[in-house]
Amino acid sequence: MRKIFFCLIFLFSTLSYSQNDLIGKFCSNLTEQKTISTIQERCITFNNDGSFVEEIRLDVGIILTGKYLFSDNLITLTYDDEKNETSLLKIIKISDKKIVFKYLSKNRRSKRIILYKSIQ
Description:
- This protein has two helices and eight strands.
- The protein has helices at 2-15, 19-22; strands at residues 24-28, 41-46, 51-57, 61-71, 74-79, 86-94, 98-103, 113-117.
- An eight-stranded antiparallel barrel has the order 1-2-3-4-5-6-7-8.
- It starts with a helix and ends with a strand.
């Protein structure tokens, strides 16, 4: 019984990610941006204090800021705008080199989005 209990704890611990894995700057690979031709690059920086900065480079640059909450492999992004818009991201994978997620918000359903950890 004890072995089963420890095996279950180990299994669930490997399926979830810690917030420390999320801290840092993650950017898109330009060759993978074929799905949305107008976006040249997307970067999201997650800070220790629960804030984030999302940079979208089109013909012009757009910078969005806000707060994030990370729990149960979901990230809730609450933007600092007039509407306090919220996006929900389902984490598929986080490693020391990349993050893979899907938007789950009702008007932003998406395929997998891969952002690579930026070394700066």
